[in-house]
Amino acid sequence: MQTFTLTRPDDWHLHLRDGAALAAVLPHTARQFARAIVMPNLRPPVTTVELAEAYRRRILAALPANSGFEPLMTLYLTDNTAPGEITLAQSSGRVHAVKYYPAGATTNSDSGVTRLERCFPVLEAMEQADLPLLLHGEVTDPEVDVFDREKVFIDTVLPQITQRFAGLRVVLEHVTTREAVQYVTAAPANIAATVTAHHLLMNRNAMFQGGIRAHHYCLPLLKREAHRRALLQAATGGNPKFFLGSDSAPHSRRDKEAPCGHAGIYTAHAAIEFYAEAFEAAGALDKFEAFASFHGADFYRLPRNSEKITLRRESWQVQSSLALGDDELVPLRAGERLAWRLQ
Length: 343
Ligand code: DOR
Ligand code: ZN
Fold this sequence. Notes:
Elements: E1 3-7, E2 11-14, H1 19-32, E3 35-38, H2 49-62, E4 70-76, H3 83-92, E5 95-100, H4 120-129, E6 133-135, H5 149-156, H6 158-164, E7 170-172, H7 178-186, E8 191-195, H8 197-201, H9 225-236, E9 242-244, H10 253-256, H11 271-281, H12 288-299, E10 308-317, E11 322-324, E12 327-329, E13 337-342
Parallel strand pairs: 2-3, 3-4, 4-5, 5-6, 6-7, 7-8, 8-9
Antiparallel strand pairs: 1-10, 10-13, 11-12
The structure holds (4S)-2,6-dioxohexahydropyrimidine-4-carboxylic acid and zinc ion.
(4S)-2,6-dioxohexahydropyrimidine-4-carboxylic acid binds at residues 15, 41, 106-107, 136, 218-219, 249, 263-264.
């Protein structure tokens, strides 16, 4: 197959940042995707509908001319989020979900939730309003092994949410383990998951290939090969609960290549190509369009896109770095060649 045409996809989990970084990364996403669920972990976090509306306007202002890209905004859940904010979110038509970060779990999560019970009134309002909850599904207990934090979250925290709020739509974001796949697969239809391209393409060896690889460090961490295979099987299996969420997370080279480097892998420059590579390697290109373009829209109850995009089999070299404000950004596979190219 030399070309592959599919309905224009959406990215159901994306970090766009703000200011100069936003301006640098947004064109990459806008040329591939029709819409993206935009993460609210800015500094300060996007905790209110008013802040989300203002952020949305900054995103629209940074878009290339004639781009039809639509940012879908989210709110950052804190211990102090008022249930009334959910009513505002629902009537705004702009806010499509609320993001739960356990405090301290990852980049800019210090304002996240410290005790789940504090959020019960908000979760109840979300269930009523049918507004999805997006989970960074990892516990932060320093006693728990870093590779087990997702599994322990699924065992201990997730059931508290899904049992108490049985009607709430929940997306377990960026799943990385077999346990996550099993949980989501067995759960009712209102529980879904996003899968990143980097977790489909790499296992944890990639973090230590010939030395420590800061640019392969993300959260949740890459896992063992058996987990990568489980993710691949879930993503390519045609199950509508699993859909594309790149979690492309730009950080400057300075912040990544530091003694205490930041978590995040940048994939927006070639996100759709990375996913195509993973699906092709699994012999499942026939399942690619539904995963990339249909399942997420259906879950979020938004119309499917009508435009098409075409990927061509053409070897091309990823740039070794991209400009990012006064620093640079090292994209996944920097300087290496990819087999698929978006036309
Ligand atoms: O690797 C990650 N980077 N994981 C996250 O959860 C956050 C993200 C970021 O914002 O950089
Ligand atoms: Zn993320």
